[in-house]
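Can anyone check this?
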Amino acid sequence: MSTRYKGTLRETRALDAFIKLLRAADTVSKNTRGPFTDAGLTESRFGVLETLYHLGPKSPGELGRKILKSAGNLTLVIDNLERDGLVERTATPGDRRQKLVALTEQGHDLIEKLLPRHVERIASEMSFLSADEQTELSRLCKKLGLRKEL
């Protein structure tokens, strides 16, 4: 086991797996962000654009849940995207208090340009695992991710 923590076998095994999961995710994330960082986007900004591209207009709360960011962080992200002309906020039909965030034409064009390069980087990064290993990793991550919070 890689951890130096002196606990029970159950604890050290879990901690070791957790550390490796975080380090692997960090490595893959760093190695795949080139296309959007080259375009001046952060991971959060790219995540918002990608979500809107695939799912259409969403409320800030829905976007936060999709890209796993807090409401406070997301407000700044959306403000910056709006400032740069990549998204726009519009009133929700029937409820002017609620805003929807949508891609502008400029935002749509940018994500359409960046997404294939980003996906290719992900495919290249994941090619270190066999097809069966990728499927198993996906299954295990889904199983872990669908657990109820403590």
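Reply from J.R.: I decoded it. The two ends are 26 Å apart (CA to CA).
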